[in-house]
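Following up on my earlier thread - several people asked me to post the actual chain instead of describing it. Fair enough. Here it is, all 681 residues.
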Amino acid sequence: MPRIIPLPVIARLLCVAFILLLCGPSARACTTPVWRYALDNWAVTPYVVLYFHADEIREEDKAVNDLLTGLAEDAPPTNLIFFSVRKPKPTVEKPADGPTTEKTDTEKEEAAAQAAEDERTLGEHEMRFSHLPRFVRAMYQLHVLPELEGERVEIELVNLPELGDPIAAVDEDRVDIAPPKRWSDHRQQDSQYIVRFQPGKEIDRPAILVTAEDYKPKNVSEKDIEAFAKKRADVIEAAGAKLTRPVTPIRVGDHWGIAYASQVKEKTGEGENEEEKTLNQIFFETVVDGRKYTYEMRGAVPPLATEFFAVVGRTRFSQKKPSKLPGKSKGEVTETADEPFYLIVTPWQTKLYAGQLDKETIRAMVDSPVRRKLGKLIEEGHSSVLLVLNCPDEKQNERAAKVVGETIAQVKEETEAEEATQEEQETAEGESPAEEPDEFWAGGPQDVPQLPFKVASLTLSRTDETEKWLVDSLLAIEPDLHDEEFADEVMIFAVFGRGLALPPYIGKGITSDNLIDCMFFLSGPCSCQVKDMNPGMDLLMKWDWEATAEALAEAAWEDQEETREGAEGEEIGYEEIAVDTTAPKPGAQQPQEPTPGERPEQGPARAPDAGTNPPPRVDSAEGALPPEVEASAAAVDTIADQAESLAPTDSFAAGQAWKFAIGLAVAAAVVLAAGFALMRH
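Reply from S.P.:
Thanks for posting it. Predicted structure:
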């Protein structure tokens, strides 16, 4: 009976092959400090600017769009890309229970125009609305969604996202309602709600709940919406609720009601893992046929407001007829505003800005005095810059400045101590020790010549108009930094690499220990080569980071060569080594000395030519060694010294190519062997 290799064995073989495949490229990444690896290898992630417009582009916007298009290509370049997007056209909403009719001539024309738009060849900087990521479409919908500020608001269904499949016969056949798309968990008729939607069984936030209760008056319409809003506002105020958005009369699609927002404290976890979180809430209330329906979204974040109002607007009440709105036919909706606007999206897929732009605003958006100073400090060799965002409280600002000063002083002291210790060891032993010391600030043995770890600081004011865009970029690193609880707190952002800013230390979290831990992370070995798996977000800057990285690499090479020349008293270069003990032949070429200050080319030491001069004879303590032993030992020592003195001049990734090839070859061999064994047995 043929023997079959069990599947677990095959799985193990494939796992071993995969590990061997990854071993080569990852072996050396851990020896380069985070700050240096980020500067040399992590390309800046661009901000995306989208221009939403109708069929025609305004003349004043054409010049702005040309400026945005050229920013990424100008010198110095900006981490920004631009696309022009045509706004979606309004559609006609059919009444839920109306008769099915053929398309009108207008509808046919709109469908033909949409088909032509889909077939149209896009320009280099154009994009279709339907091709935008879902989170960008949500930002667009949120921008055209009016703010709840107490005045009457009207929201059209065309500006809201589509929903999933509807759930019929809710609240004893009174309501047909649908959840947001991809929200898989739907629950009906609980003691606390008539329906509840959440993304999944194990994901209960955010959640949309709908409750129902008997109420008088029987219905709410446009005529009595103001009286209903005032009555409910008085009840909510009497209950002691604190609202973050006031009670506002609102129409969503065909439904008149009120909307308001608040926050609630909610405890999660148990025991030591218990924590209290602040959740945002959005409410909508309406009255239909003597029933008051309250929609609530818990754990809402701004982009999800569109999902919430889509659920509200597309709810169908069995006894309710669509409202007669002035100037509109039954079921018809129109788009609210047709004015074009710009949307700027951060590398972390959050909104930085939405509105109008002009040339002066764009120049301030990508460049400012503090950002120029920041780039210059990194170009001068500073590994990290602590960016202090001041607050209105001067005492907090002074305390933060003191902590930053202490941190910089401690980093400098540790760096100098490490350098002194290493020099003493090398002087005592005559060469680098066999076992490298635990270098705190340098990150241990390095793949490339390293510069000292240095830290600088810059101060930034929240009220400085010239730095408004930089402040907004910093506060966009985390979603809650704009909250009122942080408005009066000082923040410190550590910036490194190519303008990559880490999440901030805030208020009481600003201590020397915390900042030293952060510096330890930046100076320590880079454990992950993937940028997206590390914390931080790129700042929007007009700066040539490639030139900065090249300048620092050149400075590191020059510093290393000067150090070695001073220590060894000779130039660093290739030297022809004799391994033959025979007498030199007449006319044999002598080894050439390298040009002073010239960096040796990358590559292995060349084998010596036959007939070259042997090295001078060296006597041991016991007496003269045989010539053969002397020559071989001298050759080995010299080649080893040269190998240690050489370092790659190309990029880190290029230096790993040969290891990757070996890993790939080994992996292929293992897989082929496993396949052969399967076929054999």
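The mean pLDDT is 74. That should answer part of your original question.
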